[in-house]
Amino acid sequence: MSLPLLDLKAQYQSIREEVQTAVNRVLESGQYIMGPEVKAFEKEVAEYCGVKHAIGVANGTDALLLALDAKGIGPGDEVITTPFTFFATSEVVSRLGAKPVFVDIDPQTYNIDVGQIREKINAKTKAIIPVHIFGQPANIDEIMSIAEEHQLFVLEDAAQAMGAEYQGKKIGSWGHAATFSFFPTKNLGGFGDGGMIVTNDDALAEKIRILRVHGSYPKKYYHNSLGYNSRLDELQAAVLRVKLRYLNTWNDQRREKAKLYNERLQDLPIQTPFEAPLRKHIYHLYIVQAAERDELMQYLRDHQVSTGIYYPLPLHLQEVYRNLEYEEGSLPHAEKAAKRAFALPLYPELTEAQIDQVVQLIAQFYEHK
User: Fold this and answer.
1) How far is CA 16 from CA 11, 22, 184, 253, in A?
2) Per-position b or e across 159-190, b if 16+ CB within 10 A of its CB
3) What Å distances lie between residue 18 and 12, 48, 147, CA to CA?
4) Structural domains of the chain sorted by starting position, each given as residue range(s) with its CATH number in brackets
């Protein structure tokens, strides 16, 4: 029997009746855009993260874009971030006419190497975007200290880290603002696209709310700025409200599965995830490294076990950023991870027997080497 990387059908079956009730509630209301479900979900997310404001938008990419735009990031500005993440993180910087400046990663956590940030700061630097990659928080307190020292805006890209914690405090509540994605595969995933921006900054929140509805303010059809059409819809909000109630439990289950993998893989030539001190890693993905990655992935695929590469080419080496003049070898840790790292199946409903199945296949692969 094939083993998927993620089983969304199993998750749906566990909450089916609640989801159907929520969806029917929206359908019967006739309100599909910016209605009571969105308002309630925004309030619940703000409370969950421990912040004053949560603003629903169309997707995680728009969340990054609107947060940066609301802060005034634009042409001539530089934004420091990581090269080992999904393209959206730097794409939005470039879309606004600013320049992404890449800093290598910590080889253990895959997060931005805080020790290399200061050397990239100059008069053009306006912001830092740390990415809490794969569900593991970055060194956000140190990043905030650097930002305060240089008066920089910190936008946490928490697309993969909803529910993760640093020093017992929720990710999303550390930076000047933070963004989440509700893409279906995320730990809190909708039945389509969705995103959220959270912040304690009243002025920034108000600006984002204006931007998401075409810059319309103070009333409909009156526009004081150029904005976007980026709104979280009622159906997604209703589904996400159901799922939010289970998020902590699901994240704890992911942590339990990761622990089982770690224990069973420890004697094999596989680099398992490192959970740094003071962090609650919520394992959006269970990422391992292997020197023989492609061969091992093919072996698992041949035995009906799904895997995935995150990410095959670091951002600084992407064709679109050739003008930034990074060369191969310039950010070695990110480049090494891109050649060796891959994800094994991990989700709350994964059984111990299925984990044993994956581990046994990996062991068999190395026995035959």
Assistant:
1) 8, 10, 15, 19
2) bbbbbbbbeebbbbbbbbbbbbbbbeebbbbb
3) 10, 20, 43
4) 8-244 (3.40.640.10), 247-367 (3.90.1150.10)
What pLDDT, in 10s, does the model give residues 123-139?
999 999 999 999 999 99
Residue of 168, 181, 179, 247 whose CA lies nearest to 208: 179
Is the Cα dihedral 131, 135, 138, 141 positive or negative? positive
- Report phi then psi at 20, rounded to 5: -65, -40
Supply the DSSP symbol for 32. Answer: -
Q: Is the Cβ–Cβ distance between 101 and 147 less than 8 Å?
A: no
280 within 8 A of 162, measured Cβ to Cβ:
no
Tokens at 130, concatenated: 């740390």
How far is 301 from 325, CA to CA, in rounded Å?
Answer: 37
* Helix then strand then coil, % of the chain, to nearest 5: 45, 15, 40
Coil, helix or strand at residue 93: helix
SS3 60: helix
93, 130, 227, 359 from 65: Cα distances, Å: 7, 15, 11, 40
pLDDT (tens digit per residue) in 148-181: 999 999 999 999 999 999 999 999 999 999 999 9
pTM over 0.90: yes
How far is it, in rounded angstroms, from Cα 317 to Cα 304? 32
DSSP string, 66-79: HHHHHTT--TT-EE
